[in-house]
Amino acid sequence: MKPKFIDSRKNSLFQNTNVLVTEGTGLIGRSVVDMFFERGTNVRIASLNDPLRVHPRAEFLKVNLMKFECCLDACQGMDYVFHLIGIKRSPAMTAKNMQVSLSLPCSLIST
Known about the structure:
Helix content: 40-55%
Strand order of the largest sheet: 3-2-1-4
Radius of gyration: 16 Å
Shape: globular
Order of helices and strands: HEHEEHEHH
Number of domains: 1
CATH superfamily: NAD(P)-binding Rossmann-like Domain
Mean pLDDT: 79
Number of strands: 4
């Protein structure tokens, strides 16, 4: 049995905060967004995906985060950023296009 204070802290950690989830429309991102809404978080999603995949309660920005100005705009007013952008290809496609697989770590390191 967990102590009661751990459960209450877990549920209130992001309550009433503003969180940006990059690629909040993907497999992992949708689960993360759901978790935030369960905790009373205000969520903004930044993605190039179709807005039909966005949680109905989330604010959505269709934005290219490779542009610095777009990053600044997306982060405006946010308390936390969860950077979940990844490669949208199969491992076989990634092996054929090493430029994509090499550019992603550089993008993540520089954020």
